[in-house]
Amino acid sequence: MAEHENAPNDPIIMCEDVHKWFDDFHVLKGITTSFQKGERAVICGPSGSGKSTFIRTLNRLEEHQRGTIIIDGIELSDDLHNINLIRQEVGMVFQQFNLFPHLTNLENITLGPIRVRKLTKSEAEEIALSLLERVDIADQAYKYPAEISGGQQQRVAIARALAMEPKIMLFDEPTSALDPEMISEVLDVMRELAHSGMTMLVVTHEMGFAREVADRVMFFDEGVVVEEATPADFFDNPQHERTKLFISQTLQH
Amino acid sequence: MKAPEAIQEIQPPDNTKGPRAWVKDNLFNTWYNALLTCVAFVFLFFVLKGFLTWTFTEAEWKVIPANLQLFAIGSYTRDQVWRIWTVLYILGVLIGLSAGLWGGLVYRFALALSGIWLIFALLPFELATRGWFLGAIATIALPFFIGRGRTGLRRWILAGWLLSFPVIMVVLRGFGENGVLTSNWGGLLLTLILAVVGIVVSFPLGVFLALCRQSDLPAIRWVSTTYIETVRGVPLITILFMGNVLIPIFMPGLDINQVLRMMFAITFFSGAYMAENVRGGLQAIPRGQIEAAQAVGLNYVKTTRFIVLPQALRSVIPTIVGQFIALFKDTSLVSIIGLIDLLGVAKSVIANPDWLGLQAEVYLFAAVIYFVFCYSMSYGSQEIEANLGVGLHQNL
Ligand SMILES: Nc1ncnc2c1ncn2[C@@H]1O[C@H](COP(=O)(O)OP(=O)(O)OP(=O)(O)O)[C@@H](O)[C@H]1O
Ligand SMILES: [Mg+2]
């Protein structure tokens, strides 16, 4: 267990030669990268290239088999205590929202603060209501997830993650399951979050969002980071053939 | 062009029909349905006529009131019956308090139970018995008014329910020779004790086994799977026999009476089935639910407690209650090792020369009793489902 003293300029996420296999299928083939506090990175790449797998290793929803991942000074290992610490610092938003259908929207958000952060019910509800305000759906607090639209559900899911006061937010294709007219309401929330200084890793095909918000765009293909650059360089001056192909295909749509 | 406000509020069309139209649409809509309807009516008419004639003119119902106490408590020592009243009063207090605290279904149950006691109190029993029944109503009613609205008491009442089980067993048994040997427990009393203990213990056992069967640790998974599959591969009768014979061999020195042995056997049997029912619910939980719970930092226990089990159990309420009902009826098998439960009493009454030839009356009575309890469980389960909105919030 390595618990480092956190110097101000240390990256908040450090990945060193991260490998991941599903059985003998090599999905991540040595990812080495790091993210600074407050950085906003967009991850893109073709289907099956390992984008989801990569961000899921960062909160241990997937286990990496080789290499090192250090989040905010805590190394990810089999140590359950460390895993739980890291999960409290890393919020995650899923493509399919994954709200808890048996709980109201408010309870979805207060569950973590009450059961993990040990806040009282009223403290947690106060936080939850102000977060629902922030994502602009305070009026849906006492409904169940099945009773609100996809875009609203995804905003509840973002509020749920934020309620743990994470230092890092991971987004795995947060708008891919949404009808087109709901995409912008979710992107608006994410944009606001980015401006608030949150460290964000976003897997998305929304290239407009990447161009506008990202500090860095990373391009994954077949388990490696093929190219990473500022959005301007990435879109206007891609270096690799695969990147060029991907950009031309994506921008056609 | 019409202005937008000209759009009228339109009521949904009224699709309800009169009884005449209903009959025409549902019973006589085609020539073969009309034919079937007629045949069914003729058949029903003769069956009902035969049944009603028998019930009201031929059946000798006096066998029931004459043996009512036997049906209720078997050969429970008669001068110790106060023990049973005590138990009913303990339960009455708990039910009354719970009805006040939770309302809803519990309240309706308390009401129904009070109604039943009231009817009994009005029947021509001995005066003392009728007094006991009236008292039973009071033990429900008073705690109800005490408990009403005091939600802070809830966890104490739950603890009270848990504690009531051993207390009730001790009260029923008493100590040594002065008490009532379990071999004298019988009738509906025995049936209820076996069923309630079986249900209350096999449910958590089943949940535990189901979780073990899904464990990441192979050893735990293996033990649980072996247990479940073994028990499910053997008929209940065999397990009852084996429990009766093997428990004294495995635990010599410990004097475990037959009733206790049967409790063990029934619970172990039912637990395995319960586990499979619960597992069905566990498997229906999408992976994303668990991942989302982990992502907000919930550990295994909390994920299971707050995310997995509430959803899994909710979706299998109908099957679980089906299992409870099966267990209730299966308790009648204990008569094969000589315990005299409700069905056992029925058999012994029929065998009594005083009541020769009255099988139909006695078995029908026993059947009605079983039905009342089983149907109540079924009704309760439907109410709980409706209250929890099973299916409504289920699909995202
Ligand atoms: N649990 C798993 N078991 C086996 N293989 C898996 C598993 N999860 C993912 N894979 C495989 O790993 C590869 C990478 O998957 P991943 O989900 O990371 O891709 P992705 O880049 O997110 O793609 P997409 O854009 O389709 O979401 C895919 O080929 C996928 O089939
Ligand atoms: Mg993916």
Give the gist of this structure.
The complex is a heterodimer of chains A (about 250) and B (about 400). Chain A has about 250 residues and is an alpha/beta fold.
What does this structure look like?
The complex is a heterodimer of chains A (253) and B (396). Chain A is α/β, with parallel strands linked by helices. Chain A is globular, with a radius of gyration of 18 Å. Helix content of chain A is 38%, strand content 24%. Chain A has a six-stranded mixed beta sheet, sandwiched between helices. Chain B has 396 residues and is mainly alpha-helical. Chain B folds into two domains: 103 residues, no CATH class; 208 residues, MetI-like (MetI-like fold, Orthogonal Bundle). In chain B, helix 9 packs across helix 15 and helix 13 runs antiparallel to helix 14. Chain B is globular, with a radius of gyration of 26 Å. Chain B starts with 18 loop residues before the first helix and ends in an 8-residue tail after the last helix. At the A-B interface, helix 2, strand 6, helix 3 and helix 5 of A face helix 13 and helix 14 of B. The complex binds adenosine-5'-triphosphate and magnesium ion. The site of adenosine-5'-triphosphate (ATP) has 11 residues of chain A, from strand 2 and helix 1.
